[in-house]
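Write out the 3D structure for:
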Amino acid sequence: MTPRQQSDRILIFDNEGIKAFALQLKKIRKREGYTQSQLAFESGITLSQIARIETARINPTLSTVFTLARTLNVPLTDLFNFELAPKEK
């Protein structure tokens, strides 16, 4: 990839999806009886990162999502059990 092609790349940050994921994670964390601090400690993810995920300020990596699902002992599908509005044309 040339420098020109790299600079033309667009970062994707789906605010609606990130917010829906954040709400779902928070709901599941509470349901499973974890505080943010406990989840951070047991998952090895920093407390500040947990907080940023739950407030939809960051887009977590797949590896982070996998770690959260394993730590919470829930199926991965539980974390993504929410609806997204169709993409506008």
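The CA atoms of residues 3 and 9 lie 10 Å apart.
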